[in-house]
Amino acid sequence: IDLETARQELEEFIPHVKNISDSSIKKMAGRDLTRFKEFKKQGIAVKFGRFTQKENQQIQKNVEEFLALTGIDSAEKLLFTSRYPEDKDTIHRLKTEHHFCEKISEGIPRPWRLIYYRARKMFDPNNYKGRYTKEEKEKLKKYQALYGNDWKKISELMSRSNLSVAMKFSEIKSAINYGPWTKEETQKLTNAVKEVMRSKLQSENPGSVFSLDQSNTDLWIDRELLYQALPWTEIETKVGSRYWRQCKQKWNSILTSKLTRGQQLYRGINGLKAKINLIKRLYETRAEDASEVNWDELSNAIGDVPRAYVQAKFYKLKVSSVPLWKRKTFSEIIDYLYENKLPELEKKL
């Protein structure tokens, strides 16, 4: 099918498809669209956000089955082929012949690319090497001085993942301010996020007209865009005085403030309704573990807010309402809230 038709058909499953590049749309049309339609027939929606334990197990099964089918002798060779230049051509041929993209995605209602990234994270032995030693930190500083931010090259030299070396360097490179955020720092952070979002959108849609110069009305804060991963090490550099994780946490708090402003979600009657809805929705999921909960969907239980906001409200609810909650399983906590706290809240309402 042609590009425009593919984009229109994918929009049913991926709301932010208008922000995806043409080359990615072409790949998704071949690798995802048929799967998405099959899942729709079964009444299964396409998912985003955190992977569940069940999905992780399915990825593990898919990778193991593909290795058995092709005879490739390790998941690292399959998913990090560039580390094995002598086997590269053979592995690429086997992946093409045996439809790697389709096989790794079987049984998982998510875009192929997200499943592939998750598999790489799960099976990269360099992700699980523990704390950096003093010697490793010195090596990291030396390599960065030599090669700049070529994290791929540095990761190979240090046998650590790209993300790991990039984040560790940003943590150790300079003294960081741990005090309260100043107005100037907050403004720098907001400007940095707007800047990287603008360049990202322009690179993905060079022909489109998109303005982020509407900060007075906050129209540039688009829910779908903000759920995409932001390049926090780049934002950290633009802010200058804060470590990347601080920037991320501060931005989440700004989002919560902006998205909940004026709604008065946790005051009076609205607050009671929000707690009641949250408990009911959690109970309906029948989840055995917090990782099985789709927190993005649950955000609708208390309004148009980020998942972190919902998780924080749930945490406060269990700590204040469930005796000995640390000794209880997730499902036991939900049952207690449903059986004991919910009637109390409904009576109060």
TrEMBL record:
One of its GO terms (cellular component) is nucleolus. Pfam families: Myb_DNA-bind_6. One of its GO terms (molecular function) is chromatin binding. SUPFAM superfamilies: Homeodomain-like. InterPro entries: Homeodomain-like_sf, Myb_dom, SANT/Myb, TTF1-like. GO terms for biological process: termination of RNA polymerase I transcription. SMART domains: SANT. Residues 124-161 form the HTH myb-type domain. Residues 124-172, 173-255 form the Myb-like domain. This is TTF1 factor. The gene is Ttf1.
